[in-house]
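[Q] Does anyone have a clean structure-token version of this?
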Amino acid sequence: MKFSMIKLFFLILLFGLNVQALQILQPKNDYKIIKQQLGQSNNTQSLSSKQLLTKLEKSAKSGDARAQFSLANMYQKGINVKTNPRLALYWYSQVAKQGYPKAQFILAKDYHQGINTNKDLEIALDWYEKSAEQDFVDAQYQLATMYSIGDEVVVDNTKAHYWYEKAAKLKHVRAQLSLAKIYDSGIGVEKNPLLAKHWYEKSIKQGDAQAQYYFANFSEREGYVNRAVDLYKKSAKQGLAIAQSYLANLYYQGYLVDQDDVNAFNWALLAAEQDDVHAQFLLGLIYRQSIQVERDLSKAVHWYQKAVDQGHAQAQYNLAVLYLKGIGVEKDIERAISLYEKSANQDYARSQYALAQRYFRGEGFDRDDKKAVEWLLKASKGGHALAQYTLALSYKLGQGVEKDIEQEYFWYQKSADQGNLEAKYHLALLLVEGQGIEKDTTKALSILLNLSTQGHSSAQHQLHKIYSQGEVVDKDEALARIYLFKASEGGYAIAQYQLGQLYHKQSMPQEAMMWLTLSAKQNHSPAKQLLENIYKEIADKMAEDELKTINAELVAKKETKQINNSLLENQILSDKITSFIPNQNLITESLESNTKVMTNLEKLTMSATQGNPVAQHNLSTIYSLGSIVSKDNKKAFLLMKESAKQGLTQSQNGLAMMYLNGIGVESDYEKARFWASTSARKGNQEGKQILQYLISRLK
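[A] Here you go.
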């Protein structure tokens, strides 16, 4: 039985090639001749395996290409003979010399990779080209790839395109995909979206997962969202890790698809198990801060570590934060710094900035302002807005570097260009002062007014000074007073003190004490001193305990949420957006906190009519509360909408909550989400909180 099986194998090996196989093995004009020769062998079944081998060798030596190719395979793979690489190479070369393209391709690979012989690129290229010129598609694709990526040859985009096109026309799916990518990117040819689309479509007809992924990417860039998402899913379902990882990110970010952490998690897990580093990082994020998937700090650390092991810079940074703060792991500053350094050495700007902070504070290192500035400079060049702002401050203060007002201005401008409010504020101050740089009061005033509409209390206080002094613009006591109120209600301690002073001079002790107390709570010494003096002044008229009780009641009614305008501190201390669930009472409180002291309703209405977004916001608030005019939610809504359209983030938040709870308009979840998202994209924290709550309601 065993002997019969061996004979059968030889028969298959020797005579089993059909016409189509012969065409692959040999030139088109020879296959009929060899087929005729096969028909002459009628008594093969009576031969032993040794006799078959002898006959095969005899045929091979006589120049029979089929026999030579069979012998080469036998010696290469050790089929019923001892493996003999030298003989395998010899017989492959004999077949190749007869012009058979498959043998030529195999021989080319042997010389290319140094299999069975010494590596010889020149000989390899010669055999690849001989095979490719006979339309052997694998050889054509191999040559195209070598010239495309510079695999031991000089990159030659023209030759790469030539061979990719040859193979693509013979339906080689990867060649079709490569050709599509060439036309898509314009590498070596003129960029041509139509031809790119043509070859992408050809490649996906064969169901190739990579082709589906790259065509999805092309479709996304061309604006065909539905087609893109469908192709990403098809590719991901075939198990392509890069597609699974990308799809996971789409769901996580809510881009092209509805935001869904559960779907993001499921796709990321499939990709992460295939060692996709981006998916591993995303799993760490989801386990760390998702509100739809159960949080698990130990699993977050596990997946961050997986990504760290593959050198993922952002994972190194995130894991460093956990070790620095002792979240989910035992606090370990040395480990945190080691991770920061690995990430920073990959030019990850956030880690570079974090190292600068460690050197400034002497945390994990001896304090070294010069090294801190070195890292700040690297992070700043990498586009980190907060590092740019901090670097500007370093040049201002001479901390770790020589004072340099030009460099200070330069880095403020860089940071301001990225939307950093503190940088914009300090830039405006330099432009007002004009010391060391060209004075530009018009630009400064424009910056301060813009900051004021965003609730920046320091800018509002600066506007108060400008309109009070009348040096930069015409003096305007009314406007100065308004901006003083704005800055005070924003929690700016100096403004609160000055407003308290103002009321004290006007013999309005209760109002004076209210604002002075708010300022004193922020440890503003002059406010504490003046407050103490006021207590002494009226001690004879009212018992001190009673006075403090009245003052406490006033403060409780008026005290507003303190706003910390320091972007620097916010980004250092904030690790994530906290959960926020607004209800009817919270909406009312939010609106009340935005109430502005404005007694001249006529002036406010005129300003709102002229399109002033702040006036529109304030008038909307008044109509919502019904404090000065009759309550009218419809008017409040319309005014809030007009203000929101002009970009005022406070109004965008207010409008989102109005849509959410149906205040002055029919409840509309999608519009609520739109306005909260608009505010959140500008970095507004309340907008982010509202948006996070809205997303959580999708569960």
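[Q] Thanks! Anything notable?
[A] The chain has a mean pLDDT of 85.
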